[in-house]
Amino acid sequence: MASRAHATHITAETWFTIEALTHDGRGLAYHHKTPYFIDNALPQERVQIKILQEQAQGIEARACAWEQTSPQRVLPSCAHYAACGGCQLQHLAIEAQRLHKKAHLAQQLRPLSKKVTQKVVASQLSLKRKPPKKMGPLQSQLPEIQVLTSPAWGYRRRARLGVKWTRTGELLIGFREAKSAHLTGIHACPVLDPRLNALLPSLYTLIPELECKRTLGHLELIAGDAHLGLLVRHLKPLSHRDLQAWRAWGKQHQVALWWQDAQAVTQDPDNSFSLSYQVLDGIALQFQPADFIQVNASINQELVQAVLAALNPQAKMRVLDLFSGLGNFALPLAAQGAQVTAVEGLESLVARGQANAQTYDLAIKWHCADLYQTDAVQTLLNKTQWDAVVLDPPRTGARLVCQNLHPRQVAQVVYISCHPATFARDAQALLTQGYQLQSLAMADMFPQTAHAEVFAHFVPA
């Protein structure tokens, strides 16, 4: 653990010079060779700090005074930013946020670019050519990282809000504070879809009037393209009076309702419409509140177009879509003429995907399989000679799949990742198998946060 003695050297007059920004958006400084990870601090700034916690890797702190500020510093747009744990980068200009995320992705891929360099040297040696004396920057061996962007505000089409009553009887509806179980009550959130944002004041009016107001767990707000939804997590059965109050609220605000208890999620029988979002002109996916969807509609559209542009689907092109979800990529590929097999681990999503495909008379083959089991993966890959595989796994990545892919069997791989570190690990496996990166992009799925996603297209080396 970092020495507590180092922390005791800090006084009210100690100034820290911020040297860099960490992957999670904190300023990095050193004092007596000890790293300090400082919230709300940017490179080039000189700050004084309040120590929050000492950890094995360094000391966590928060900036509380500035002698010098970065030219990239901006005034946060959210009144709750200092306390709420939802955003980490509102104090950094949006273009600088994107450059930081792009640089972090490049850093994650440095071992990958080194492997590319080693393959170049190996191929030269096999041809009895002399390797170059200087290999140049490691990143020069990888394609330029493109950046997919969306509006910086009002992009988030779903959010889970906690509900809590304080000891003094104050109602809090909002997000968890950073690294804390405490809730920050919010009355507006600038990253939320404006239609969802507009519902918050009415919830503060409705909930205090409920009989079961203290047994609500959380609220999940969801925005489809045309309609809104709300999932109510209740810890005890709702009374008839409360159900009628919620239904009256839903009718007034044109919001479809779902209920969640410890066993299941159920749709309110009074709902008169469903939720859906468009993935391609003329094609929309219906979904339920508990289903996974990309929260940023604009970035999702860009990712769909990037997949189509990379693969250029043609009639009879055989595409295996793994971790397919509702059919976010499967339906657009099939609509372009590809013969798509979609595989997902959840039966509920497979059923929803099948229904979506049937709506547009798309002949997609759907399977439910555990893509973290060797037998299941090998059976799927050996089923036929695939022209392309599309991967869109959760944060844990798709290591097993990547280790079993080979250019002789699958000509192209498109990988959409929500975790740059696991993507870098899996990309190493694909390079080892004989692929190379054709194109690469950082998708800014969550502006104002440190989170970044990745789009990558692999082809045979």
Automatic annotation (TrEMBL):
The keyword Disulfide bond does not apply. Pfam families: TRAM, tRNA_U5-meth_tr. The active site is at C418 (nucleophile), C418. Transmembrane segments: none annotated. GO terms for biological process: rRNA base methylation. Keywords: 4Fe-4S, Iron, Iron-sulfur, Metal-binding, Methyltransferase, S-adenosyl-L-methionine, Transferase. Residues 17-55 form the TRAM domain. PANTHER family: 23S RRNA (URACIL(1939)-C(5))-METHYLTRANSFERASE RLMD, RNA M5U METHYLTRANSFERASE. This is 23S rRNA (Uracil1939-C5)-methyltransferase. The lineage of its organism: Bacteria, Pseudomonadati, Pseudomonadota, Gammaproteobacteria, Oceanospirillales.
